[in-house]
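We give this protein:

***
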Amino acid sequence: MVALLVVLFALFLFLGTASLYISVMRLRDMKAAGVLSQLHWSVTATGYALLYIGLIFDFLLNIFVMSFVFLEPPHEALVTARVRRHKFNSTGWRQIVALWFCANFLTPFDGNHCG
């Protein structure tokens, strides 16, 4: 039962972080295109709320899930910083996991997110 709860918690963190990441990247693109400033203030406020909630999810995902994925405690606060470190400074399986994560979860939604 405890194992099931841990898996469900990890899945919740991962899907929540991914959803918030995609939303925030879209809002960033809208801001760069000048569209966000033309929308009602409540949309902008909602966007910033999503950003801050996303940062909390990202932090928790990094601590609880990515520590298990990379089999190490976090040295960074957020997932992207950890993935970048392994992409550029690691060798072996951690670098392979980081490259895969960048290619499949980060780069499709923000082409330069992994550096």
Notes: The mean pLDDT is 93. Residues 2-106 form one domain.
